[in-house]
Amino acid sequence: MRLRLDIAYDGTEFHGWAGQRGLRTVQEELEAWIPRVLRLTEPVTLTCAGRTDAGVHARGQVAHVDIPDPADPDRMVADLSYKLRNVLPPDVVVRRVGIAPPGFDARFSAIWRRYVYRIADSVPDPLLRIHTTVLRAELDLQRINAVAPRLLGLHDFAAFCKQREGATTIRNLLQLSARRAWNDVAEITVLADAFCHSMVRSLVGALVAVATGRREPDWLVGLLDAGQRAAEVRVMPAGGLTLEEVGYPPDRELAARALAARAVRSLETSQ
Question: Whose CA is closest to 237, among 85, 86, 118?
Fold first, then answer.
C-alpha cells in the first residue's frame, strides 16, 4: 500500500532531504522511524516531491512510501500519524498521513512546486534570522516584478542550474513575483513545474542583482540563452528558501502525469 505524507521541517540542522552516509537528513530521519512505529521487518524508502538542499526549509513537502498491506488500513494510518508526531524531533513534522490514490507518485505526479525566498534588506529581525537572508542593500521590488514576465514560460534554465549528467535543465516557469511581507521582509515567490539543482537560489541571486541596480534586466533575460552555468550568477544562501507547496492534478490524471513527467524534455519536443 502506498502512503502519502505531507511534511514540514526546519532545514537548519539537516544536510538536505536526500539520505547521505554519516549526515543527518530529513529522509533518513523519517526512514528510521516509520519501520519502528509500524513494526516492520524491512526498511522503507521515501520518495519526495522536491529534494531540498542542506539548510533549505519546507512547509509543504510531499513524499510517498510503500508498505506491506495492513489488516486495518485506516487504523494504521491514524496510528502512524499520531505516533510520528510524538517520536520525531521538533524540527520535522509529518502534518498528514493518508492512503495515496491509484497512480500517485510524490515526485512525478506533481504539476508544480512553489518556493518562497525571504530577504531582510532593512533592519534584520532576530526572530526571523533562521528563515531569512540578510542583505545589506535595499531591494527595488518593482524592478523584479517588471522583468518577471519576460522569464515566464518554457526555457532552458541552464545558466541557473548545477548540471547533472543526463538531466535536462528545461523548465516551465509559471509564476515569479516579489512583495513586501510581514515586518517588511521581501518575499520572492517562484513557481514552476519542476526545478533543477540550485535553480531557485541562483534565479533569486540574479533577481537581487537587478533589484539592487548592479545589473540591468536585459542581462538577466539574456541568461536564458546562455546554455550553460553562468559563473556571474550568485547562488543565494540556503536559509532564506522554503518549499511552500506542491500541486497535483485530479486523481484520475495522476498516473498519466507521472508517465509524462519521466520523459526527458527538449525545447523542440515541448513545442
Answer: 118
| Fold agreement (2-99, 112-249) | yes
Phi, psi angles (nearest 5°) of residue 18:
-70, 140
Quote the pLDDT of residue 198. 92
Domain 2-99 has CATH 3.30.450.20: no
- What pTM was computed for the model? 0.95
d(CA 113, CA 94): 18
Q: Identify each DSSP E strand in the chain by its residue range.
A: 2-9, 46-48, 57-66, 92-99, 112-120, 133-134, 153-156, 170-180, 186-192, 241-247
pLDDT of res. 247? 98
How many Å apart are CA 192 and CA 146, to the nearest integer?
A: 19
Q: Which fold has domain 112-249?
A: Alpha-Beta Plaits (3.30.70)
Burial class (CB in 10 A: 0-12, 13-18, 19+), 29: middle
Spatial separation of the C-alpha atoms in residues 106 and 96, rounded to whole Å = 14
Predicted pLDDT at 266: 67
Collapsing DSSP states into helix, strand and coil, what is residue 61?
Answer: strand
Question: What residues act catalytically?
Answer: 53
Nearest residue to 186 (alpha-carbon basis) of 262, 247, 112, 125: 125
- Please give the Cα distance from 254 to 260 (Å, whole number): 10
The mean pLDDT value of the chain amounts to: 94
CB 232 within 8 A of CB 222: no
